[in-house]
Amino acid sequence: MAIHSKNHTISQFTAKLLVRLFIFLLLFAFAPVILEQETTRTYSETFVYIENKWALIFPGLLFVSFLALLILTLRYKYRKTDLNWMLSLNTALLIIYVTMLYIRLYPIIFG
User: Fold this and answer.
1) 96, 18 in Cβ contact below 8 A?
2) What is the value of pTM for the model shown?
């Protein structure tokens, strides 16, 4: 059995933790639908207008890079320390972005 450095162990733990937290936050978005929580309006009457459509490119690019890094990291089974740290950074940025998005959208949905 190969002996891994402490940096490898920490990067592996961090990557797994942040990916699981991100998936948990994505599932959190479906909580109002699953729990049948009352909203101020029906979903067909709720609209979000985005003034600058180019603002969606960077979050989309961040999510695509998350998927690519996740596939690569899972392919190598968390053995590559650099991939672990890149996935951790990417996932941390996605968690921040999704949290800010939830903070802005939940008052619109629940009033």
Assistant:
1) no
2) 0.84
